[in-house]
Design a protein that fits this description.
InterPro entries (chains A, B): Aminotrans_3 (IPR005814), Aminotrans_3_PPA_site (IPR049704), PyrdxlP-dep_Trfase (IPR015424), PyrdxlP-dep_Trfase_major (IPR015421), PyrdxlP-dep_Trfase_small (IPR015422)
CATH topology of the largest domain in chain A: Aspartate Aminotransferase, domain 2
CATH architecture of the largest domain in chain A: 3-Layer(aba) Sandwich
Structural class of chain A: alpha/beta
Pfam family, one (chains A, B): Aminotran_3
Order of helices and strands of chain A: HEEEHHEHEHEHEHEHEEHHHEEEHEEEH
Number of helices of chain A: 13
Strand order of the largest sheet of chain A: 4-10-9-8-7-5-6
Cofactor (chains A, B): pyridoxal 5'-phosphate
Helix content of chain A: 25-40%
Family (chains A, B): Belongs to the class-III pyridoxal-phosphate-dependent aminotransferase family.
Number of domains of chain A: 2
Oligomer: homodimer
Radius of gyration of chain A: 22 Å
Largest sheet of chain A: 7 strands, mixed
CATH superfamily of the largest domain in chain A: Type I PLP-dependent aspartate aminotransferase-like (Major domain)
Keywords (chains A, B): Aminotransferase, Pyridoxal phosphate, Transferase
């Protein structure tokens, strides 16, 4: 199958909102570990995909999936040990008090269920999110994702906070007390929501601020915000789809970095290394309120194959020491990126931790004028031509996002930095220039 | 692992809304074709599960899944042939005009996306559903599922039609023109919605009326209703999660039975024989409206493994002649159930077609007083003790639902009928008796 023909067939058969990445779409046919191969046999280092968390086509994941599928794949209306073991293993990694789990298929379903539960439990409809947030594709989670639709359509129950970007936000790293300054701005947004007659049901918090960054926020800000939300009757829902599963280095969950204790935790993408499995963890009283009100059933959620795969992912993370790798290789990667930044002033800022870093690309280091989207696309294509797959993020799409599978090794970090170095050497931004 | 211990662990770790079926929950550990085995080695004929559409643990499905998982599992932002081939094969089975597809993970996500698209395209929020309908577990699809929550909480944009049950509805089979009488009642409900200031975005229609039955409606009613919806500016969304994939005999989709042409078609459960894969098919102009308005991405939707599994399901249906089997074995099953009804007056009515039948259980054939829920539970347990797994449905929970995998053979139908016969021989309803 030629790539051009396949592209034409795809454009005919699939919805136009099924978009693809890169100018010349990648036609990937095989994966292994941190490597992907296209139809022409070209090899790419994967610096973008967090979903194949333990590496592409990991043999233990494939074996777990195949073995269970050959045996049984039903649903949670019968007893099965797989889902119970999975629930116990993940609950053991969560703070005391979060003792109850529900399994679904996607992060969108997880966040949708979390918002439903938070609203039922508090009796309050208000949801607090960040300006660049993406929390899912269902009608409700999409409404809670201000990055995805025109600001004029924001529902009145939504409070939108400015993401805590200390490099280019309203509060900067060298402010005397950035955490408190950020908190004052957040409090004003909460006040505005309440002034509209809305009560706060929950804060929906991605501790990596993935689609804004990643960002690293002041700890006192995050703790202060959670206290404010609680004082106003709201729950803390941590969306760990991005930040969880050792993505941010030496802890299983992103919220642990900030020393906060959520009421509800959702996770998705990395849980099944590509298999559609996701979950919601919560206090039992929150789950009981839901059970008293309505039926909830998820046909595929936590089925025996999904549970086998998700258990195998935890096995691999444990046996291959991937939490430690995320911290160590992540620190090595960051140091190498900082060295790169010293040679390339277009890298305005680097934020991130563990195996999740963002390079904020600027046309001018003084004004911090961001790269435009066309330049970022061109840069991404150049880096891909150098054999490395990256992504973009950030309010202006100006952040080069580096978020490889957790099996990424220091040698892979070297390769990635060298490729970005070569791409930047031949690159100059075109947008924003005087004609 | 003892079943009792496992149950206790499950109750501790899982949310109480993850309910199980049967008084003594079944602890199923293995499946093959139409058979399930519990932890004690007891064997059950599966007369309930439509999700393992081509039979439990079908070796071709397992092989397709394993082979693809060992090769690659990414997402739709890169080109991959599997999803394109899958889209083409399913679009070829749909009416002209429905030429565009989107892949998601669950029927809930499919219906949620369909409702979002219908609302965007028509600019109208109103949704028309049936009283017993279940269309999903997201906030939006749950609101469109009146079976799942208290009637007082129905949103004002929802019009709820009475399901066309010609045995126990307001319009009966022996009315002079049941289709027209049903239509008049539906029109009144649409008028009431519009009188509330709501415009109709779509009808969300399950052509099996699964959670009300299954039911068989008059063709002129369904056609007339669709014409009414269109005349008022609404789209026809067929939810084929239950009725599609040859469930209703000699056609791929349930709506074909009624000679209607939908604008959007959703499917889920049977598509992946247990693997979480689902889809939305639509007219291109509807997809284009969505693409112009917003981003839509579904991380796991249509990934290479999901596509491989869904393609294998179509292969098996074709190669094993399962559409024909659904029609033939379904007719054989129905005849045997009708013979059973002649001997058991508690079977008030039988509705269904293909491999989807419902027995409406009555305490009194004259008054049609339905079995209560406790009696239905007791009956289901008795039939399970006889080695056959069934389900319940219906407005009062009074319908014994028979909806086996599509590989169900005439011999299996005999076994099922014999088991129900034995259970009924020792059964008398307790509820509704004078004390």
């Amino acid at each position: 199958m030629k790539t051009g023909d396949l592209m034409a067939r795809r454009q005919r058969a699939l919805a136009p909102f099924h978009y693809h990445m890169f100018e010349r779409p990648l036609h990937i046919v095989r994966g292994e570990g941190v490597w992907l191969w296209d139809a022409d046999g070209r090899k790419y280092l994967d610096c973008y995909n967090n979903v194949p968390s333990v590496g592409h086509a990991h043999p233990r994941i494939v074996a777990a999936m195949s073995t269970q599928a050959a045996q049984l794949n039903t649903h949670t209306r019968y007893l099965h040990e797989g889902i119970v073991t999975l629930a116990e293993r993940l609950l053991a990694r969560l703070p005391d008090g979060i003792d109850t789990s529900a399994f679904v298929c996607t992060g969108s379903e997880a966040n949708d269920l979390a918002l439903q539960m938070a609203r039922l439990f508090t009796g309050a409809e208000g949801v607090v999110v960040y300006d660049g947030a993406y929390h899912g594709n269902t009608a409700l989670t999409l409404a809670a994702s201000p990055s995805e639709y025109p600001p004029a359509e924001r529902p009145e129950w939504l409070a939108v906070l400015e993401a805590p970007n200390l490099y280019r936000g309203a509060v900067l790293r060298d402010d005397p007390a950035p955490g408190q300054a950020l908190l004052a701005r957040a409090v004003a947004a909460l006040d505005a929501l309440e002034a509209r007659g809305q009560r706060i049901g929950c804060l929906l918090l991605d501790c990596a601020w993935d689609s804004n960054g990643p960002l690293l926020a002041p700890v006192d800000y995050v703790q202060g915000l959670c206290a404010e939300i609680r004082a106003r009757g709201g729950l803390i829902v941590c969306d760990e789809v991005q930040a969880g599963y050792c993505r941010m280095g030496a802890q299983w969950w992103g919220f642990q970095r900030y020393g906060i204790t959520p009421d509800i935790v959702t996770c998705g993408k990395p849980m099944g290394a590509g298999h559609p499995v996701a979950a919601v963890f919560m206090r039992r009283d929150i789950a009981e309120r839901m059970a008293a009100h309505q039926v909830y059933f998820n046909t595929f959620g936590g089925n025996p194959v999904s549970a086998a795969v998700a258990n195998a992912v935890i096995d691999v993370i444990e046996d291959e020491g991937l939490m430690d790798n995320s911290a160590r290789t992540g620190a090595y990667f960051l140091a190498a990126l900082q060295e790169l930044q010293a040679r390339h002033p277009v890298i305005g800022d680097i934020q991130g931790v563990g195996l999740f870093h963002g390079l904020d690309m600027v046309r001018d280091a003084g004004t911090k004028a961001p790269f435009g989207r066309a330049d970022m696309a061109r840069l991404g294509n150049l880096i891909a031509q150098e054999g490395v797959i990256t992504g973009t993020s950030g309010r202006h799409g100006q952040t080069l996002k580096l978020r490889p599978p957790l099996v990424f090794a220091p040698h892979d970090a070297d390769l990635a930095v060298q490729a970005i170095d070569r791409a930047l050497a031949s690159f100059s931004p075109q947008e924003g220039r005087r004609a």
